[in-house]
Amino acid sequence: MAKSDMFRNQHKELLDLVGKITPLLNPQAAKDKSADIRAALTGLAGKITMHLQVEDTVLYVKMLADPKAKATAE
Q: H or E element: which one contains 72?
């Protein structure tokens, strides 16, 4: 398992959620399924928030501490 697998899996989960929300974003569905859309968007926002926090506190900290990664980024 690569060190980045967790992040890749999270990206896939986020894209899957967006894929489920997208078909609901038309006028007819929005009128009939507003509670479902709100719940899906709330779930997506929570997952994005958690993902960004983990990236900030784990991924980027490790990358900045790695001289090779830091040199590549600069």
A: helix 67-73
**What total of structural domains would you count in the chain?**
1
pLDDT (tens digit, 9 = 90+) per residue, 7-56?
A: 999 999 999 999 999 998 888 878 888 899 999 999 999 999 999 999 99
pLDDT tens figures, 56-69: 999 888 888 888 87
Task: Please give the model's pTM, rounded to 2 decimal places.
Answer: 0.77
Range of the domain at 50: 5-73
Tokens 């974003």 appear where? 25
Cα dihedral across residues 43, 47, 19, 10: positive or negative: negative
Residue 24 CA: distances (Å) to CA of 4, 31, 48: 31, 9, 19
Which one-letter amino acid corresponds to residue 64?
Answer: L
